[in-house]
Design brief:
Layout lengths: L1 H16 L4 H13 L3 H14 L4 H13 L3 H12 L6 H13 L3 H14 L6 H6 L11 E2 L2 E2 L29 H16 L1 H6 L5 E7 L6 H11 L3 E5 L1 H4 L6 H15 L3 E5 L15 H15 L8 E7 L17 E4 L5 H12 L9 H6 L6 H22 L7 H9 L5 H14 L7 H7 L2
Parallel strand pairs: 3-6, 3-7, 4-5, 5-6
Antiparallel strand pairs: 1-2
Helix pairs in contact: 1-2, 2-3, 2-4, 3-4, 4-5, 4-6, 5-6, 6-7, 13-14, 15-17, 17-18, 19-20
Length: 448
């Protein structure tokens, strides 16, 4: 260490005689970085870049200095610019992988690390590779997007904690939807609070609930609120989390997601736009898609592992495209229509949306009457438009003014409910493809 400090001292003396010597200043910055003087290293790299702004080694060195100080955002700005180019140095990909892992993006971190060592095997970092789930025992070819392939005889699932969430919202943050909330309480909230009563009746915790209705009515928000209500884990699954170009990988991905939920029970497992993963098999031409659906049905049944403690919620805007096998009792045995909020629910939603904003005395009931058929997303748009108009007004007069009832009513008049198009389609299915009574709630809502 003494030798390093002597070298640093000698380099500083040399720079006094030749302050514009870029290689000399770069060498000093690298030495400071190696001895842990990260702030001083940053300053030297900055001074060198002021003399030669486009030099790759200097930019990468500055990014390293940022990373060592915990300035990850600044480091990411530099590194992301590097990785967009085809001639990016391997160390840039390695640093990008470290930054991605720090942000929880494990899949992308694995890809960037593998790309880095493919360009230069000498920069491989075994400790970092183990953090990514790549070890000597598990070849990198067995790592797919940050997840290790299942190994025969290994019963421990790979757990990617980056997909787990702990939502901070609860049912009190959701306006209306009382019937849906009651069903969810029966499925998972009451079993957790009164386990002896449910055990006496032989009723297990969890199950499946399918939510359908027009877009923007709060299905996804309600799923997060459910997890927050019981302080459980929440896993949101999109089509990109499951489907893979290689045969068999989609089924494996789906299995790993269910294993993750079972391992972290109580857990809310939420499939958004579930019709993309559970489409009617008679409409599919490719056998691989049918295999994914079969795997999904098997996981819902809990054939090899129990789903107790896992509440499986799914949302769709097009239930008529769903395979009928998913509606069997024991899978999605509660199929609930989530309509646009009624008058009282619109009042509650508007109160939540306006909370924390500068307000006059607002007649929420009056605004509610002017927003008939508006979805929750439409109501949010009403508040956003009213706020934007107030901001424009404040820019002109220089004085911010609170929102009023008139502002909200005016904003509502400028918007059209987005639910009408959905009901035009749903009405036809409810009238002419409703043999099992699945869409009776739609007919009741439309008063047909």
């Amino acid at each position: 260490m003494t030798t390093s400090h002597d070298t640093v001292r000698a380099l500083r003396e040399a720079l006094k005689l030749s302050p514009d010597n870029i290689p000399l200043r770069q060498h000093l910055a690298e030495m400071l970085l190696s001895v842990g003087q990260f702030e001083e290293s940053e300053q030297e790299y900055r001074q060198a870049l002021a003399l030669k702004p486009e030099q790759t080694e200097l930019k990468l060195g500055l990014a390293k200095a940022f990373y060592q100080q915990g300035k990850h955002s600044q480091a990411l700005v530099i590194v992301e610019d590097f990785v967009k180019r085809s001639d990016s140095p391997p160390l840039a990909y390695l640093l990008h992988a470290r930054l991605l892992l720090n942000s929880g993006a494990v899949k992308q971190a694995v890809n960037q690390y593998r790309h880095a060592i493919a360009l230069d095997p000498a920069i491989a970092d075994l400790d970092f590779a183990m953090l990514l789930g790549i070890t000597d025992e598990v070849n990198t070819s067995n790592v797919v997007n940050g997840k290790i392939r299942s190994i025969v005889g290994d019963d421990t699932p790979f757990l990617d904690d980056s997909i787990l969430e702990r939502p901070e919202i609860s049912f009190q943050d959701v306006g209306g939807m009382d019937a849906v909330k009651d069903e969810i309480r029966l499925k998972i909230i009451y079993p957790l609070s009164q386990p002896e009563l449910y055990k006496a009746y032989g009723k297990t915790i969890g199950g499946g609930i399918l939510l359908y209705g027009p877009p923007g009515c709060g299905k996804t928000y309600l799923a997060r609120a459910t997890a927050g209500e019981i302080n459980s884990c929440f896993i949101s699954v999109g089509i990109n989390d499951v489907l893979d170009m290689w045969l068999g990988n989609s089924e494996r991905n789906l299995h790993e997601i269910f294993e993750q939920a079972r391992y972290n029970q109580p857990c809310v497992l939420f499939f958004d736009e579930v019709d993309a993963l559970a489409a009617n098999r008679t409409d599919l031409r490719q056998s691989s898609s049918r295999m994914v659906i079969n795997q999904f049905l098997s996981e819902l049944d809990g054939v090899k592992s129990s789903n107790e403690g896992v509440l499986i919620l799914a949302a769709t805007n097009a239930p008529w495209h769903l395979d009928s096998a998913f509606r069997r009792p024991g899978r999605f045995d509660r199929i609930l229509f989530v309509p646009p909020p009624d008058a009282s629910a619109r009042v509650a939603t508007l109160r939540l949306l306006c909370h924390g904003k500068p307000l006059q005395e607002i007649d929420y009931e009056h605004v509610s009457k002017k927003t008939d058929n508006f979805s929750g997303a439409d109501l949010k748009a009403v508040v956003d438009v009213a706020v934007e108009r107030k901001l424009q007004e404040a820019m002109k007069i220089g004085i911010p003014k609170p929102l009023s009832t008139k502002d909200l009513v005016s904003a509502a008049a400028s918007l059209k409910p987005s639910t009408k198009e959905w009901f035009a389609t749903a009405r036809n299915y409810a009238l002419y493809a409703n043999e099992g009574g699945l869409y009776d709630d739609i007919l009741k809502y439309l008063k047909i």
